[in-house]
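Continuing the series of single-chain predictions for the mutant panel. This is the parent chain; the variants come on the following pages.
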Amino acid sequence: MAHDPYAALRVKSYRWFIVSLLTMTISSQIQGVVVAWQIYDITRDPLSLGLMGLAEALPFITVALYAGHIADRLNRHRVSIAALGVLFLCSITLLTFNLIPGFLAKHGAWPFYAVIFTSGIARSFLQPARNALGAELIERPLYANAVAWRTSTWQTAAVAGPALGGLIYGYTSPRVAYVADAIMMMVALLTFWWIDYEPRIVAETRESIGESLRLGLRFVFRESVLLSALTLDLFSVLLGGAEALLPVFADQILHVGPQGLGILRAAPAAGAVIASVYLAHRPPFKRAGKTLLYAVATFALCIIGFGISRSFVLSLLLLGISGMADNVSVLIRSTLLQVLTPEHLLGRVSSVNSIFVGSSNELGAFESGVAAKLLGTVTSVVLGGLASLGVVGVIAVKVPRLRKLGAIEELTPTQTAV
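Parent structure:
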């Protein structure tokens, strides 16, 4: 049969899912740019940018496994809506901080960290519930196509969001940026509400919460291909991520200000959009394992080059290519997760995936801030890229099953690993 690149988008509920994901991501990206610049403007310390990541990662990791259990036991639609509601309130709170005269001058960066902490809890519940629900909205043969459009949507928003955040902040004020942030989050909440979702029947079980959580962990750690794919993403972002330090590069190294910061933040996503549109229109990979390894290695090399670069244009190009490579790895990893995981475990396995992948961004931001404080901004980025490249080599040698992996669509849900 001919490959239909728009097959997943022909499902009405999945279209609402995509619109909600688009607007929610634009909102969070606008917020990320403005909050990062305000915190750096207040403190002038790269470590404060790392603390942003830690403030979100700690609550996220703490409750992520329980959130996965909730996603598998309760109505995933309602859980997602509740989490989006909390994120909307966080956007309103940040706007309020900027409307009260003298509030930030008096309290500094700590109110921001409190909001970030709260959003970390909400995101820990949103990700497993929303990801598992997304898999329920479409048929199994459409998983790869749906993942391609989901990542394409996220990356498109990740281009528009930082660019909008930087431009609005630079040419108007943070208040206007937070208004845009709140409006986008409200649209995300409403469109997710409109998804026509029929809750699945959850089988009665006497297992304790502890056993339920262990089941999700045990599945991931016994499925070597999925575990190695998650590990690659974890360490590439944890060690090789440079996003948290972009305000320092924009201010002290490339000298492009908040407008340039928004463009730098958007560059990886711009590259990812190009890659994701291409991936949505091509058939699935036949040698997925080697493609994943090459993609993560390319990402690491681009981060090393970015750390060395003193040209704004070259830095944008390298970040764009890193986004292309990262999008390929996201597509393969996300498709693996949906194809290999039995439906009743999707929430818990998605929460484990969130710990590996979602929190790695925030922990990577903290690691980058600490390393920049101790070693210098450029040195920390270059060494992180080299370390990521080393992880790719180790995984390639130690996990031959991943290296030899062919077409993902030929795999079946793994029952023996449960």
